[in-house]
Amino acid sequence: MKGEAPPPMASGKTSKAEISAYLKASFQYSDAAFSGFTDDHLNDSAGFWGHETNKMFILTQLGNHDALHYGNLVTYLRLNNLEPPGGWF
């Protein structure tokens, strides 16, 4: 979305402090990308896993991807007799 290479992966980060700092930085990076995005950019061309598409498709997939992982989390929690957060399911 920002038209630049993404930040490096979290490889090698093992402590809770390192992982928490990396996660916080990733949210800040994403917030900065979204804050400069307007409707005018929705049809801009973008690469997505080796395919050419538009940015609207990528934004749609972001929401779908989050929902998929939330569903996985809910299943894991329920299998372990825990109540999932959020009350969606």
From TrEMBL:
It comes from the Bacteria. This is DinB family protein. It comes from Acidicapsa dinghuensis.
